[in-house]
Amino acid sequence: MNEVIIELDNLKDLKKIIRKNKDNDNIKILFKYNGKLYEKKDESIKEYDKYLEVIEAFNIKDKRKRLSYIYDNLCTYFDNDMKKNNYCEFKNGTCIANRLKRSVHAYNGCCYKRGKLCEFLTDKGCINPNPTCKIFMCSYLNKVKKVPNYDTRKILITSCFLDLKGHNFFKSNYFITKSEFIDKYINKVG
Ligand code: SF4
Ligand code: SF4
Q1: Is the pTM of this model over 0.85?
Q2: 74 CA from centroid of ligand 2 (Å)
């Protein structure tokens, strides 16, 4: 296995290196910082988390496992951002669009499939983390609150590993489970 060492002064090249070598199973990337080598996130250098996540994903050579890592990472990213910004303003089972009648539904946000409540919505919330569901913002959020849809092209980890087909796939596969998502992705995108 060949090792590519990334340091602070060439961290900006990480995306380029990954895009060029993401299908090469013989290269491993390491981040050198203060004389130490890192291949995944480390509490002592939290400020470099987003780069180390990308490096860790690159070093996973099994296609399904890498996709699973990216999937989980993206869901966590959206959850944290949504929690921080509270865009949907949920209160007692209703979101802001439900309360203002800007949604066709009166409660439970937009977790409906063909007019029926999604089977994955429980008293504890959604039990099926799906990145497409998390990417979606309704027209109230888009047009009134001016919250743009999440864009996987602007998130480092997905911008490193996905091509246009992959980005389109991530924004158009609502409701399905993680294993269905991964199977379908491998089948349709590669
Ligand atoms: S995206 Fe819109 S409709 Fe869906 S939960 Fe958020 S505010 Fe409600
Ligand atoms: S799978 Fe999607 S639509 Fe269903 S509960 Fe989860 S977030 Fe809502």
Answers
A1: yes
A2: 15
